[in-house]
Amino acid sequence: MQVFIHHIYEYEKGIRNLILHTISEDLLDFVEKRLQLKKIDYKIYKIKNGRYNIFFGDSSCIDVIKKINKSNLSDYTPEEDFILGIMLGYDRKKQCERYINFKNKENIKVS
């Protein structure tokens, strides 16, 4: 929970606009109540093994996540993965390299 609380701190201080946090089902109620109390927008997706991915942060970022609307990150297209990485604040150069690698693998499968 310390990491979750720290993520809220980073959002409130403007360090991050979007956070992705994974939790177990037993923490779901606490996390939702805390985000609602802080009036932070969020989107929850149930994933494997009773765990949940919680995206939270700026409402425009959450709107993008809702438009993509995929609970499994491995289902993201290379373009969606790139957008998510940039929104989460990952290194831009590394995201560009990751995108190129995904697209190269995609081209190999098509050939």
**Model regions low in confidence, pLDDT < 50 over at least 5 residues:** none
The domain count comes to 2
Predict the CATH topology of the largest domain: PG1857-like
CATH superfamily of the largest domain: PG1857-like
Structural category: alpha+beta
Order of adjacent strands in the largest pleated sheet: 1-3-2
Put simply, the count of helices is: 5
H and E string: HEHEEHHH
Number of strands: 3
Classify the helix fraction into a percent range.
40-55%
* Cα Rg: 15 Å
Comma- or semicolon-separated keywords:
alpha+beta; about 110 residues; about 20% strand; 5 helices; PG1857-like; single chain; 2 domains; 3 strands
Would you kindly provide a written description of the structure presented here, covering whatever features stand out?
By secondary structure, the chain is an alpha+beta fold. Helices cover 54% and strands 18% of the residues. The protein is built from five helices and three strands, in the order αβαββααα. β2 (41-46) and β3 form a beta hairpin. The protein is globular and about 45 Å long. The termini are far apart.
